[in-house]
Amino acid sequence: MSKSDEIYKYTVSKLKYLQDKADTGTVRGIMANLRRGVGKPVGELPEVWGIVFDKISPELLGKNQASNAEWAIYTALTLYAVHQQGSDTSINQEGISLGHASARLIKTEDDTDRILKRLNLVVTAVSPEDLAYRLKEIIQLLKQENIPLDYAKLAKELYLFCHEKYAQNVKLQWGRDFWSERNRLEKKESENNG
Hints:
Helix content is 68%, strand content 0%.
């Protein structure tokens, strides 16, 4: 199994735990702590060490600093906590990429430019912290509209994004997903109005 697939599988298990135990005080506390962790270095908040590191594969761990795998998992979980806050239903939905979800934010032609500008800030982020911050801006918009996202897929993509030889493929896929979803929604709207 590739590292990116391990990251996906591990993140799925963590999301399942957070969803299955959402009504417990323990998970409510974990979620609050995860929200505080957006954009902070992995390991800075001892309160979330368990959700990030418990039962993680040794191959995903860093040596002296956080590995790209640890950062990707941590970032996806912190963003999930922001997105899930205040929602009674799970906003984690398998198969919905950042590109798909972002296209669902568009209600008017002006929205297209606004969302594309935000996506541009994501794909041109200059540091992991900047990337997390830019993603949080989009996640907050998704939260307002109750639009789901696949957070295990996001963790996998964030890991790949950290590697120059794969980053372009992630950006390309987000762009493809954005425009294919945008076209699908326009066609559906046209059929409903016609």
